[in-house]
Specification:
Length: about 180
C-alpha cells in the first residue's frame, strides 16, 4: 500500500542580473526559507547583484503557479506546512480562487473557514449538507414520498448559485463557501 505524503516545497532561486546577462546562476532551496536567500548565497561571494527570482518550484501542490518572488514562495510554503496532506490539494484550489495576497497571515485560517470538504459531486454535497444541517424531523421526511425522490442535482444548483463553489479534482470536487 502506498501512502501519499506531502513533499517539502522547494524552489530554484536564480539571480536576475545574471539571467539578463545570459548566465544561469542559482540553486535549489527549501521553500519556507526562500526569503532568507541572498545574492551572496547564490554567488558564494559578495556581489553587486540585488534581485533574486524563483524560476522553478516543486512540492507546492498547485498553490504556486509559475515564477514568483522568493518572499511569496516562502509565505506559501509556510502556509502549506500548517496543513494536513489531505488539505494541501484543496488549499491549492482555494488559493488560486480566493487568496487575498495582502492577507498572507490569515491564509490558512480563511481556507479552513471556507473549505467544506471533498465530495463525489455537487449533488452528493447537497445531500450531505442537508443531512448535516437538518433536524431529525426533517431527515425523517426523506423516507416519505415525495421527499425520498429529491433531485439532488437540481437541489445542488440552488446551493452553488447561492455562495458555494466547487473545483473539480481527480475523483471528485472540493467545495468552498467564500462569503
Amino acid at each position: 500500500m502506498f501512502v501519499l505524503t506531502q513533499i517539502q516545497p522547494r524552489v530554484w532561486i536564480g539571480c536576475l542580473a545574471c539571467y539578463n546577462a545570459g548566465r544561469l546562476v542559482g540553486d535549489w532551496y527549501d521553500g519556507d526559507t526562500a526569503d532568507d536567500v541572498t545574492p551572496e548565497d547564490l554567488h558564494g561571494r559578495a556581489t553587486s547583484h540585488e534581485e533574486l527570482w524563483v524560476m522553478d518550484h516543486d512540492g507546492f501542490s498547485g498553490a504556486l503557479d509559475g515564477e514568483c518572488s522568493p518572499c511569496e514562495a516562502a509565505e506559501i510554503a509556510r502556509a502549506l506546512s500548517e496543513l494536513t496532506d489531505d488539505e494541501s490539494s484543496a488549499f491549492a484550489a482555494w488559493f488560486q480562487l480566493y487568496a487575498e495576497h495582502d492577507e498572507r497571515d490569515e491564509w490558512v485560517e480563511k481556507f479552513r473557514d471556507d473549505y467544506r470538504g471533498f465530495h463525489d459531486s455537487e449533488a452528493d454535497f447537497a445531500r450531505e449538507w442537508f443531512e448535516e444541517t437538518s433536524s431529525e424531523e426533517e431527515k425523517a421526511r426523506l423516507t416519505q414520498w415525495p421527499f425520498y425522490d429529491i433531485d439532488w442535482d437540481r437541489a445542488s444548483q440552488e446551493l452553488f448559485t447561492g455562495g458555494f463553489s466547487s473545483e473539480e479534482t481527480l475523483g471528485g470536487i472540493h467545495v468552498f463557501y467564500a462569503a
